[in-house]
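testing teh design pipeline on a random one, pls ignore if ur not involved
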């Protein structure tokens, strides 16, 4: 069974999001390296990892379970970003676009989850509606 998770727009957006968060956290205080910096990076990285892991499953229910984990981790990431502003490790102007991106990724995960629940004939990524895939992948 072929699961081409790289074709999922939400996975691609999540991967780009990880890069942006890593860039932001480079400026966090050194004493936070094993605190909020580490937690934020791990949570953010978990989003595309769970999407990919779920896409490799043999059932829509299992994929949905991993998408649910990715969604919860997106919320965790958003909370950590808010904390970084409150703790004055980052300024609101740099964090706000990341929060917006996280919110959009969360909405995409929710949409994909709903689509999986309604597609009884799901066998591969390519069985998903075209709006979840990159151009040329269907």
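output:
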């Amino acid at each position: 069974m072929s699961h081409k998770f790289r074709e999922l727009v939400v996975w691609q957006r999540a991967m780009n999001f990880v890069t942006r968060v890593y860039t932001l956290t480079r400026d966090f205080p050194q004493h936070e390296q094993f605190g909020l910096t580490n937690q934020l990076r791990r949570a953010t990285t978990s989003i595309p990892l769970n999407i990919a892991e779920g896409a490799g499953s043999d059932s829509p229910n299992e994929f949905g379970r991993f998408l649910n984990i990715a969604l919860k981790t997106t919320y965790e990431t958003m909370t950590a970003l808010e904390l970084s502003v409150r703790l004055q490790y980052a300024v609101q102007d740099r964090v706000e676009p990341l929060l917006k991106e996280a919110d959009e990724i969360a909405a995409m995960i929710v949409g994909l989850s709903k689509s999986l629940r309604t597609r009884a004939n799901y066998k591969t990524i390519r069985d998903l509606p075209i709006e979840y895939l990159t151009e040329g992948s269907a």
